[in-house]
Design brief:
Layout (H helix, E strand, L loop, with lengths): L6 H25 L16 H17 L4 H18 L1 H18 L21 H20 L1
Helix pairs in contact: 1-2, 1-5, 2-3, 2-5, 3-4
Amino acid sequence: MSLLANTPLVAAFTATLIAQTFKLALVLATERRWAPERLLETGGMPSSHSAAVAALATSVGMIHGLGHPYFAITVVFGTIVMYDATGIRRAAGHHAELLNDLVEELSHLFDEGFQPRALKTLLGHTYPQVLVGAVLGLTTGWVFGLM
């Protein structure tokens, strides 16, 4: 079986690509700027992680059935990924924002040669971002499951 014939894998990657492209389009529409780096960044609307795991679980469920152990594995895996995106990774993003603010506030204490780099703050997702990503993934997985 070829890698491209692996429907759940292709569905998951397609959902990720759609979500990341949507992020780029959203920045273009709301901020009127071209930001191709959004294609490779985490965080933001919609959650590409949620889209990927939802597409994976949906296509596996459609191919193997909802009672199959493969479906159970993908649902548990997907739940952990979505929980992590709204919990731990989101909290890490908030911590990064706070640290960046502190570094800026205390910048006068740093030596001339030491310039700390700002930490990445767009790490996790809000619940709506995860929900939209999950709906995108369910739809993508369903379409690929019908093929």
